[in-house]
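Q: Could you write out the predicted structure for this multi-component system? I'm mainly interested in how the pieces pack against one another.
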Amino acid sequence: MNAICLTLNGEELREQVEPREILADVLRDRLRLTGTHLGCEHGACGACTVTIDGVPARSCIVLAVMCDGKTVETIEGTRTDDIMNVIRRHFHEQHALQCGFCTPGMLMAARDIIARHQQPDEATVRRELSGQVCRCTGYMGIVAAIQSAAAELHPAAASAVCANS
Amino acid sequence: MKPAAFEYARPADLAEACALLGELGDAAMPVAGGQSLVPMMSLRLTGFETLLDISRLDALKVVRDEETHVFIGAAVTHAMIEDGKVPDPAFGLMARVASKIAYRAVRNMGTIGGSVGLADPASDWPCCLLALGAEVVLAGAEGERVLGAGGFFLGPYETARDPAEIITGFRIPKLSAGARWGTFKVARKSGAFSDSLAIAVLTAEGEARVALTGTLDHAQLLPGASAALAAGDLAAVREAARAEVAQADPDADAYRLRCHVATVTRAAEEALTMEPRR
C-alpha cells in the first residue's frame, strides 16, 4: 500500500492505496463520491471526467497513486462554484439531460469548454464534446445549454463576436 | 482494481530513474500520462512488475528553442502543444496534430514521449516526427543516445528504445520560412485512433517527406510519394502512394488501401496549395 495525500474538493485527504487502484474506483467505492460515473472504464465515454490540478482528466484511466500531492475536484466539489451553477441552470432550462448518466462529465467538460473558448460556436462545442458520450443522444440540448451558458458568462465575448460578423 | 498488481516507484530525478530502470530492465515500464498504458493494463493487454512514474521529472519537461532545432521534452503534454505553449518548429503543424489526438481530457494528461514510447501503430506523433525528420533523445545508465525517428519505430508497440532507457525528448529541425505542410486523418469518430493518418511536409529548400500511419505495423515514410511531392506533381503522389501503401499495409483490403491513398493525396494536396508559412 502507498500513502497518498490529495486536496479533494477543497479538503486535505490522506489515504492508503494499492498502486493498481484507479482514481475513479477510489472516489466512488472508498470515498462514496458517486457523482463521478463510470461508463466505458477505458477513457472513451467521458462520464468519469474530473479535474486534476484544475484541468479535466478521465478518472477511469488515472492511477490514484499518481495523484499524490495533486488537487482533484469531482462534480460534488462544484456545488459552490458560481460558474458551474450558471451552467447547471442552463442545462436545466435547455433540457440538457435525460437519464443523467453522462451529466457529471458533461458539466465538467462544459466548464472547461467555456473557459477556453469564451463564446464557442456550435461546431466548436460539438468538436469539444466528441469525447463525452450521451447514450440518450440528447446532444441538441447539451450544445444549446453550453452555448447559452457561455453567452451569459462571457457577454463581452458575445458582443465581440457580433461586432466582427 | 482492474490492472494486475504491480509495484510503484517515483524516482526523484532522471539519474535515479535510469539507475532503477537499468536494474529492473523490461520488468519495469516508465509511465508519464498513462493515457494509453493504464487502460491497456486495466484491460490486461499488458502488465509490468513495476511502474516507474517519470511524470514529475523536470528533466523531461525541458523545452529549448535552439537556432536550428526545437527540443521538446518527453513529458510535454499534447494540450501544451495544442495550445502553443511550446515553440512549434513547423509553423503550426504540431499544434494541428496535437488537437486531433483523442479528447481534451486525455490531451491534458497524455505526453508526446509516452505516445512515442508506446508506439501504438495508429498514434499520431510517430507519423509527425517522421515527417519532420526529428530525432529521439534517450537517456540510459551509460549516458545519452540520439536516434533518428526513421529507425526508431520497428513494429506495433516496438521501438529501438532499450528497456533500460528513458526517452527524454525530441530534437525537431525547424522548418524555414516558405515551408508548407498538410495532414489528413480518417478515424471512425473524432478522437478515435486513426484508420489512416498522412502528414506531408514540403520544406522551403524543396525537400519533401510524406509519412503514413494507421493500420500499418508502424508509422513509415513513403519515399516515392515524397519524391513526387518534392516535384510538385499531385497525380504522381497518388500513383506512388498506390504502390507504396500496398507494400506498407500488406493485409489491407480494398477500403483500407483507398483510405491510405486518399489521406496521402489529401495531405500532399494541402501542402501544395497552402500559402507558404512565415
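A: Regarding packing and overall arrangement: Residues 254-273 of chain B form the longest helix (20 residues).
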